[in-house]
């Protein structure tokens, strides 16, 4: 049952779903949800956060505490709570600016590099699921910090890019097969160096690493690395959306198979903003509530639960925050049900569009015998007030006709192309996903029955993301 506030908003709006202050408790959740765990890791910067699909948790390691001390603690997030792994002598040194990635070939997470109390590191470590082990490798890259790593599904190996080393910029691409590190020749130059505010994710649509750079105007944007032999080239797919490139931001593969970018919008006040890469363009995601990004943003895509886990520190408080993001694709639905009445055969269908958040769907009425129609839009196909649906209308003079949906909103149809249309614009509001509504057209029909009215079949619509 819709709340009184939401129904009032509908009645006052240009059409049905506008304003949308609230709706039933069965509606879908927000994109962003504050997990509010009872226990959290201490606030930090320069950490790494990666999901382990074998053990089913996201692993947070290291970083720099807000007091300036380096950390080498390990924390696990299971989607409900944090737990700290008991300290062990066999652990990577306390460090910051390192990179982590899950390595499918060994089914383990690896860590490379960073800066510890002695300086820059070039060591590789493995998280077994219960503890850390040093990894013996050959031809490792030079020591560095603030580099990025992801898995290159097209190559079948881990790929690392950039970082800060003994030389000011380590603008290099390396791959790791589990034992051997190999520097890759870049036949077409890329976005410049990664310096810590950039992110590297595997695009599931292409299986290739996507690098999101917050550099200058000529380099900032979304880049893709093609590791195929003879290609080994970077392609700039798009500039950054309207996001503050100088601030912290994070990106991850998402439940719907897209790349999600989160940070602060480059407008007055720098509010939080979420964008999604759909393969050709950045699309802004509307969210009623989001984290407050600040000094640190870490993402880990929990593929088992279909969520992005977020760990970060806001600009307003050093208290660490844990959130989760869900943008799983949910299909829209249109289905005709029941039958209309009258000899003309008045018919209701979707003329164009789909019931998708941010989209316009046009309900079209054909074969109306009179000079106009009224469109009944309701939020139930089982009850109309205290009465059950379908409800026979013979007693009201509509012989052989039945009401198929509740009459929450009545809208006049607009003449178009020999029929009548009602254009319904659905706001780009995530809470509306999953909401069902129904339509039925009523038309004047002189002499058809005592009420001189007939009605159409019913139309059920469910709001989705595609």
Brief description of this entry?
With 466 residues, this protein is mainly β.
Model description:
The protein is mostly beta strands and 466 residues long. A hairpin with a 7-residue loop joins strand 30 and strand 31. The N terminus is likely disordered.
- Strand residue content: 35-45%
The backbone outline, from C-alpha atoms, is: elongated
Note the total helix count. Answer: 1
Structural class: mainly beta
Features:
41 strands; mainly beta; 5-stranded antiparallel beta sheet; disordered N terminus; elongated; 45% strand; 2% helix; 466 residues
Q: What is the element layout, followed by pairings?
A:
Blueprint: H1 4-12, E1 32-34, E2 44-45, E3 48-52, E4 57-65, E5 70-77, E6 82-84, E7 95-96, E8 99-103, E9 108-116, E10 119-127, E11 132-135, E12 144-145, E13 148-152, E14 157-161, E15 164-165, E16 173-176, E17 181-184, E18 199-203, E19 208-213, E20 221-226, E21 233-238, E22 250-253, E23 259-264, E24 272-277, E25 282-285, E26 296-302, E27 307-313, E28 320-325, E29 333-337, E30 347-352, E31 360-366, E32 373-378, E33 383-384, E34 387-388, E35 391-392, E36 402-403, E37 409-412, E38 414-416, E39 419-425, E40 436-444, E41 453-462
Antiparallel strand pairs: 1-28, 2-4, 3-4, 4-5, 5-6, 7-9, 8-9, 9-10, 10-11, 12-15, 13-14, 14-16, 16-17, 18-19, 19-20, 20-21, 22-23, 23-24, 24-25, 26-27, 27-28, 29-41, 30-31, 31-39, 32-37, 32-40, 33-34, 35-36, 38-39, 40-41
